[in-house]
């Protein structure tokens, strides 16, 4: 076989490989888009059902969502399962836009070292490790939220101080956006992976990006928890902020701009809490 024929055959094989890889990526992105739409629809449906669940009266004259309590005949286990299922759905809607870019970088990094089927399997392992971190975080959030709800029901002074505490959390979250710690976490989330194309590496990478992502989003997640976890407008705003931080050319500048908005919002909440408005 002449060198010219061998070169032409090799070129044809490379072209076929690139086409197959492109088709695989389009299928992957399409699946993620469908999952995003489904998670958004499920989150909106859950938020719409929240008013029907009722609210608990608070000693300070306000009310509290039953999200944190085993009301209406539910056990603590059912309350926790309900919260975590809502948490997973909500986080899928919020994190998928930025997670897809990380998964695409991973798939590009393992590239020709894995077949299309193996890339799909390894991507599932990465996604599983990432999801496990957020599930564990959701369980911790429920335990903390339920404990705080019980304390607020018992001590009226704590219930009255809730607006002040919420404004403080938003202010701290805004300040965190300017920190070097936030900048490091954001860099880790945006970095291209360099690792072996095997199952153990994929699982560890999923856990690592889950931890980095949770740390990077810690301030904005805290804001959502204290001001509007079941409000689609707050969710949309936080989702846009997280996605812009990860995908914009200058993510650090976006993070600082989000910090300015958060600090201003926290200051306004503080004024209202102090004035009793």
TrEMBL record:
Transmembrane segments: 84-104, 125-151, 157-176, 213-234, 254-274
Coiled coil region boundaries: none
Top-level taxonomic group: Bacteria
One matching Pfam family: PpoB2
InterPro entries (alphabetical): PpoB2-like
Record keywords: Membrane, Transmembrane, Transmembrane helix
Protein name: DUF2182 domain-containing protein
């Amino acid at each position: 076989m002449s060198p010219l024929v061998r070169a032409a055959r090799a070129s044809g094989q490379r072209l076929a490989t690139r086409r197959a890889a492109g088709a695989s990526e389009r299928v992957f992105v399409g699946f993620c888009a469908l999952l995003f739409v489904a998670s958004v629809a499920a989150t909106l449906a859950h938020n719409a059902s929240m008013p029907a669940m009722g609210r608990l009266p608070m000693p300070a004259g306000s009310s509290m969502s039953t999200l944190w309590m085993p009301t209406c005949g539910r056990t603590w286990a059912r309350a926790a399962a309900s919260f975590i299922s809502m948490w997973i759905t909500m986080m899928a809607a919020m994190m998928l836009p930025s997670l897809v870019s990380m998964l695409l970088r991973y798939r590009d990094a393992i590239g020709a070292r894995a077949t299309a089927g193996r890339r799909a399997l390894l991507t599932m392992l990465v996604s599983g490790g990432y999801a496990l971190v957020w599930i564990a975080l959701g369980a911790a959030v429920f335990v903390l939220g339920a404990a705080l709800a019980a304390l607020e029901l018992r001590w009226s002074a704590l219930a009255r101080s809730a607006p002040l505490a919420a404004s403080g959390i938003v202010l701290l979250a805004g300040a965190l956006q300017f920190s070097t710690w936030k900048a490091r976490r954001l860099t880790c989330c945006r970095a291209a992976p360099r690792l072996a194309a095997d199952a153990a590496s994929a699982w560890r990478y999923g856990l690592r990006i889950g931890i980095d992502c949770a740390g990077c989003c810690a301030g904005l997640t805290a804001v959502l928890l204290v001001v509007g976890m079941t409000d689609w407008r707050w969710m949309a705003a936080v989702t846009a902020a997280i996605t812009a931080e990860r995908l914009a050319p200058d993510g650090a500048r976006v993070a600082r701009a989000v910090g300015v908005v958060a600090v201003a919002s926290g200051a306004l909440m503080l004024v209202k809490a102090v004035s009793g408005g």
